[in-house]
């Protein structure tokens, strides 16, 4: 009887690897706002950046240096008014990850149609 294969080790962390978001905690958002992720590693070292709203994956970018979600814009009119958590998660080519979250408030006024 042969021994089962050893589990695959977790990827080694990339020293100093971080990601930041153009949207930060405490912001009140309305309409379309710019949402860009900025990993600290060179673009060639990043395999993808994922954008999450309230824990749900909204989209993933694979294009180096263009980690800006939906054409760089977040349309807050698609979200309910009130508190939300936005997160960006960058994945390096070696599999390690870094993320940044922002607790924000969406406040869109109702449009009147006459």
Keywords:
mainly beta, elongated, Immunoglobulin-like, 114 residues, 0% helix, two-stranded antiparallel ribbon, five-stranded mixed sheet
Brief account:
The protein is mainly β. It is 0% helix and 43% strand. It has one domain: Immunoglobulins (Immunoglobulin-like), CATH 2.60.40.10.
- What is the total tally of β strands? 9
Helix content: under 10%
Order of the strands making up the biggest sheet: 2-9-8-5-6
CATH architecture annotation name:
Sandwich
Secondary-structure-based class equals mainly beta
Q: Which descriptor suits the 3D outline?
A: elongated
Secondary-structure element pattern, one letter each:
EEEEEEEEE
Backbone CA Rg: 18 Å
CATH homology-level superfamily: Immunoglobulins
In round numbers, the mean pLDDT is 83
User: Which regions have little confidence, pLDDT < 50, spanning 5+ residues?
Assistant: none
How much strand?
35-45%
Instruction: Please report the distance between the alpha carbons of the first and last residues.
Output: 79 Å
Which fold name fills CATH's third level, the topology? Immunoglobulin-like
What does this structure look like?
The protein is an all-beta fold. The protein has one domain: Immunoglobulin-like, CATH 2.60.40. Helix content is 0%, strand content 43%. It has no helices and nine strands. The protein has strands spanning 19-21, 28-29, 32-34, 37-39, 46-53, 56-61, 73-75, 82-92, 97-106. The strands form three sheets. The chain has a five-stranded mixed β-sheet, with no helix packed on it. A two-stranded antiparallel sheet has the order 1-4. A two-stranded antiparallel ribbon has the order 3-7. The model has no long low-confidence stretch (mean pLDDT 83).
